[in-house]
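This section describes the prediction task in plain terms. A model, or a person checking by hand, is given the sequence of a single protein chain and must write out its three-dimensional structure as a string of tokens. No templates, partner chains or ligands are provided. The sample shown here is typical of the held-out split.
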Amino acid sequence: MSRRTVIVVDDHAAFRRQAARLLQAAGWEVVGEAPDGASAVRLAQALRPDAVMLDVGLPDSSGFEVADALGSGPDVLLVSSDEDAGELARERERAFLWKGALSTDALARALGAA
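The expected answer:
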């Protein structure tokens, strides 16, 4: 069975690196990274990943807008350092993970529900 693929989208490079390590430890293949929404949409269209881990607060758009632009393609896991964003994600029926709870196990559970 091939590993599921994911793109990590966050405007902080250090967070992208940390998330990529945890995702790989959880059995995912990280096929790309993007620092903003426009790059994320282009990358997702080109690479067609199984999932996109997407920061809610991007410099050019919200993660919710990017998730909508991705349509029904990849599974989307929204992440934020603001726990309150989780309520908005749930209202929009989106999977959410608070960055403070980021771990291999939490990612595996959250992406399983994405």
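For orientation: Residues 5-113 form a domain with the Rossmann fold fold (CATH 3.40.50.2300).
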